[in-house]
Design brief:
The chain has 841 residues and is an alpha+beta fold. It is elongated, with a radius of gyration of 56 Å.
Length: 841
């Protein structure tokens, strides 16, 4: 009990200091009863009203009138007596110790009190008022105070008159319900009821779905028969198509052989024609070259002196261009070095973002602010439109984003927002924004004003959406439902809210948006400039060659005249030879054309056959009867047609329909399987609830059994007792089996009167140890005990009262002698009076 007491003092840490009553039952006058720690006895003859003290406390803590010996509340008001007038109201106040501060949360802020009061008042008019600290309050306040201090007027620490007899006489099931209440298994019953309702719903749903499944199965079987017939018909159709293709191939081979025979007669002539055509082509090329040379000589002779000075001027101009571009290369090299230094620093202003950008992962593309640029004019607007997204990290995919986030968590660096290009959403431009874009003063969409690589388009669209950039908010003041940012950074949200004012520019911020920060782009630009330098150098070399050639041409005019005469002589000889070759070619073609008509007819027929074959998608190794005659193949085709006709009407759609219905059937069957699984899971859950309920119940019963057995042995100076669960079933009764010293075990009903009472008292005290409270009130618990057993009970009470506040209502002088203080209750003229009783030391 010592451990229990210590736990109680720590958790509840209060006691009753005093109880005052006026007009309550037999207490007409205001009566104050102080209470202290330890054992206090309230004694008096039966009928003097001593039990009204327990009723008064129960009344304050909200117990119903039927449980405090009254049919209705007004019967609790003093009803008058000999020469006494009935009271108009009943008022009871309980003073509770608050030295530990347990009730401080119910006091006004800043208020301190070592003691609090809770009270209740009822009037004959039927009103009922609860009071806290003397002021009316809601009943819920009293309920909260009860819960805080673990006070329950219906609990076993309010042991009303006849409670012991009730335990002896109550049924085994009712006794078991006491353990139910103590262990709190009702919460498991509620969960089980909910689960069983859910199970019933699932079983009903399952039954309905299984009926539908069977109907689908029957329809699917019928459809399967139609599908198999259609597949057989399709097989015959494919065989027929293969025979048709075989017939065409056999025909194609015959036509090809005939053409091959004709081609054999003219092949030599065609070869000669080809040789002649090649020779003619070579002669034509030679004639063209010589004619071109004559034209070149004519042009040189007519142009006269070339302006060598003009060429020199062009050379000097290109040299100057080379010098300019070399200066630009040097500038680009310096820029690249600076950008690479900036990139290595990874200084975005966010430690987490810089850490992610420094990870060795090519799929981390960069901070959003580094992937866009804009003219200085738009820098403030673009920065405002992007807002917190400027430091978002753009990555290729979701996995890369997760890796980066896990890295930040693992290293406890901070937080950063990721934009995975494979997951972020894009939005279309709203109709309202498109209308607003046409307004005067609206510059355009933010996503169209910034510069960026196209591969970052999704990130740009995600950040800016359909945000518009405008000169000022006046331009769009009559349009709602759009987001607009001005060049000064003023903002109008889609909901209509506006923000703006003078915005401080942070040094370096706009610069990031007004220039490219990618060193690779600058390297590409440098390569382009170097290529331009190389081209200029080549141009200079060509101009120098032209200059040298022009300077030498001035001395070679006579040589050109002689060269032109010789070329013209060669041309006449080449043209004569060409005429001879052309005549021979024409003679050969005439001979070939004699068989051309027949060959053309064969080719046309072969072409038609080949066109027909294109309708059939088969390889020759798939086709039957290619060594057979066309007549044999046609006979086989007719036989297949007769088989198809004998099959009657065939539902060819059944093939696809069966596939669709089978998929739907399987999907439906899977859903039913899920319902079955859900049913099993609910059944498992019900079993688990039962297990937890039993475990909770048995643990409580075990603790009760330990306390009950120990207290029983203490009261009986030996023997033993146990709580026996019928059939080990927590839904059945709980028997009390006791064996006083030197006696066989019996159920409680078979014991003598005194033994029954002591056994029931042991059961009550076992419950008190389990259900701890700041104080314990017992009304005539010793009524049926003889002196010997009264002494045992008094010693037990004294032992428990060492660390607890016990109030015992009794008319047993043995109990009173063991108390630390006692109050006597007497009655005169129907009015109860209290007096303090001096106890012998």
């Amino acid at each position: 009990m010592a451990e229990t007491v210590q736990k109680q003092e720590t958790e509840t840490s209060t006691k009753i200091n005093k109880v005052t009553s006026k007009g309550f039952k037999s207490f007409q006058q205001k009566t104050a009863v102080p209470f202290f720690e330890g054992l206090t006895a309230i004694v008096g003859e039966n009928g003097n009203g001593k039990s009204n003290i327990l009723d008064a406390m129960s009344f304050v803590f909200g117990r119903r009138s039927s449980k405090i010996r009254a049919e209705k509340m007004t019967q609790l008001i003093f009803n008058g007596g000999e020469n006494r007038k009935a009271a108009d109201y009943a008022h009871v106040t309980i003073y509770l110790d608050n030295s530990s501060g347990i009730f401080d949360e119910f006091l006004e802020e800043g208020e301190e009190a070592d003691e609090i009061t809770v009270g209740r008042k009822i009037t004959r008019a039927g009103s009922s008022m609860y009071k806290f600290q003397g002021t009316n309050c809601k009943k819920s306040v009293i309920e909260d105070i009860k819960r805080k201090a673990n006070i329950d007027p219906d609990g076993y620490h309010f042991v009303r008159q006849g409670k012991v007899t009730e335990i002896v006489e109550q049924s085994d099931v009712a006794r078991r319900k006491v353990v139910d209440e103590l262990s709190g298994v009702s919460k498991f019953d509620e969960k089980k009821d909910e689960a069983e309702e859910e199970l019933e719903e699932v079983e009903t749903k399952l039954q309905e779905q299984e009926i539908l499944l069977e109907e689908k199965r029957e329809y699917l079987e019928k459809l399967k028969e139609q599908k198999e017939l259609a597949l057989k018909y399709r097989e015959l159709e494919q065989r027929k198509e293969k025979l048709e293709a075989s017939i065409l191939i056999v025909r194609k081979r015959a036509l090809s052989n005939q053409l091959a025979n004709i081609n054999t007669d003219v092949s030599d002539k065609r070869e000669r024609i080809e040789e002649l055509e090649e020779e003619l082509e070579e002669l034509d090329e030679e004639i063209d070259r010589k004619q071109d040379r004559i034209d070149e000589i004519d042009e040189q002779q007519s142009s006269g002196m070339t302006d060598v000075q003009h060429l020199e001027n062009r050379i000097e101009k290109k040299k100057g261009q080379i010098e300019n571009k070399r200066d630009k290369v040097e500038d680009l090299e310096e820029t690249i070095q600076e950008l690479e230094k900036m990139q290595n620093r990874r200084n975005t202003g966010s430690r987490a973002v810089d850490a992610v950008l420094s990870m060795n992962n090519s799929k981390i593309l960069g901070a959003f602010q580094d992937l866009i640029s804009a003219d200085n004019r738009y820098a403030v607007a673009i920065e405002t439109a992007a807002g917190g997204h400027m430091k978002d990290v753009v990555v290729e995919d979701k996995d890369t984003a997760l890796d980066a986030i896990n890295y930040l968590k693992r290293e406890s660096i901070g937080r950063a927002r990721m934009l995975p290009l494979d997951k972020i959403s894009t939005r279309s431009k709203s109709a309202k924004s498109q209308m607003a874009k046409k307004k005067k003063g609206v510059i355009g969409y933010a996503s169209e004003i910034v510069n960026y690589d196209q591969k970052y388009a999704k990130a740009v669209n995600h950040v800016f959406s359909d945000t518009l950039i405008a000169e000022d908010l006046e331009s769009v003041k009559n349009i709602d439902g759009i987001r607009v940012v001005t060049l000064d950074g003023d903002v109008m949200s889609r909901g209509g809210a506006m923000s703006g004012g003078k915005k401080k520019r942070r040094r370096g911020k706009n610069k990031k948006l007004s220039q490219s920060l990618d060193p690779e782009k600058k390297k590409e630009e440098k390569k382009e400039v170097e290529k331009e330098i190389e081209k200029l150098q080549k141009d200079i070399a060509e101009l120098k060659q032209m200059k040298e050639r022009k300077e030498g041409e001035q001395e070679t005019d006579e040589d050109l005249v002689e060269e032109k005469k010789q070329i013209r002589k060669d041309l006449r000889s080449l043209r004569d030879k060409r005429q001879d070759l052309y005549s021979e070619k024409q003679r050969m073609k005439t001979k070939v054309d004699d068989v051309g008509g027949k060959k053309a007819r064969l080719k046309a027929e072969l072409s038609n056959t080949e066109d027909d074959l294109e309708d059939y998608d088969y390889n020759e190794d798939e086709l039957p009867g290619l060594d057979s005659s066309p007549e044999d193949l046609k006979k086989k085709k007719k036989k297949l047609l007769r088989k198809q006709n004998s099959m009657g009407p065939v539902n060819m759609r059944a093939i696809d329909e069966y596939k669709q219905q089978k998929e739907e059937f399987d999907e439906f069957n899977d859903k039913i399987s899920q319902i079955r699984q859900e049913k099993l899971e609910i059944e498992d859950m019900i079993n688990e609830i039962e297990k937890k309920k039993r475990s909770c119940f048995m643990e409580t019963l075990k603790q009760l059994q330990e306390s009950f057995s120990r207290i029983f042995t203490q009261l009986f100076d030996g023997g033993n007792a146990e709580l026996v669960l019928e059939d080990d079933d927590i839904e059945k009764g709980l028997k009390i089996r006791a064996a006083p010293p030197k006696k066989d075990p019996h159920i409680i009903q078979a014991l003598s009167g005194g033994e029954k009472t002591l056994t029931a008292i042991a059961f009550v005290f076992a419950i008190l140890e389990y259900e701890e409270s700041p104080f314990y009130i017992m009304d005539e618990i010793d009524a049926a005990l003889d002196k010997k057993n009264s002494k045992k009970l008094s010693e037990l009470l004294k032992d428990y009262a060492d660390d607890n506040q016990f109030i015992v209502i009794s008319h047993n002088e043995i109990t009173v002698r063991h108390a630390e203080r006692a109050y006597g209750v007497s009655m005169k003229e129907g009015v109860s009076r209290m007096r303090s009783i001096e106890l012998d030391a």
